[in-house]
Amino acid sequence: MLSSPEEEILAKACDALYKFASKGDENKVTLLGLGAVEHLFKLISHEDPIVRRNAIMVLGIMASNHDVKKLLRELDVTNSLISQLAPEEEVVIHEFASLCLAHMAVEYTAKVQIFEQGGLEPLVRLLGSPDPDVKKNSLECIYLLVQDCQYHFDSPVTGLYNVKDVINPLQIMPENRKILREEEVEKCLINLLEVDNDGVKVAASEAISAMCENSASKRALGVQGIPQLVQLLSSDNEEVKEAAVTALVNLTAASPSNAR
């Protein structure tokens, strides 16, 4: 039915497969063996919005399976998924496209594909979505992407623009800080302080300042973050020093253990 020329049949077939795949990993494996992934991959770019939406929903659910993720990576599905993050697409498409990317981003090769195909910018834009699922999926994907920060910030494909795009929303969205705390993003931010790029150090220091509004994050950041920030005080770059001082002030404020 996924090969039908009729849009109504395609939409209903995808809807039925979504319900089937949602019932467990065994069903996802069954669909994989029947060749459903290849058909769905073609349909996520279908001109009919309902067909496209339903196909993306199935892939978003199926992508939690390891073997499905492997096939999606081989099919290079990331570019098609990224295109579905456009502002004009409906919220459900944003939700399941970002979910699929988040599932895939646990593997290094997929991270590289998402970065090099321009996936970070639209994911950051979705941090402002009013839908909590879209926001959570996007944050989880971004967090997974920046874990291998040394590759990404040494790569000519990415740069400071993307780094600041990831970090700056933390300063203005308290709900994002809560989710990032749950994802233990503090370690990643501390690693960014070691990147050989003054702009990245500034952005990371600003994000650490923002995360200090969460008391648990303040404790987690203080242990390893304070020594790193103190080292930045000897930087020749005034902006780096200013951002480091501000972060230190926020880390030590109302925190005796950090102050010591």
From TrEMBL:
Ranges for the ARM repeats: 224-260
Instruction: Decide whether keyword rRNA-binding is in the record.
Output: no
Under the heading Pfam families, the entry gives: Arm, HEAT_2
InterPro entries for the chain = ARM-like, ARM-type_fold, Armadillo, Armadillo-Ser/Thr_Kinase
Q: Which Gene3D superfamilies match?
A: Leucine-rich Repeat Variant (1.25.10.10)
Q: Does the keyword Repeat apply?
A: yes
Q: Mind telling me which PROSITE patterns this protein's record contains?
A: ARM_REPEAT
Keywords assigned by UniProt?
A: Repeat
> What is the protein name given in its UniProt record?
Armadillo repeat-containing protein 3
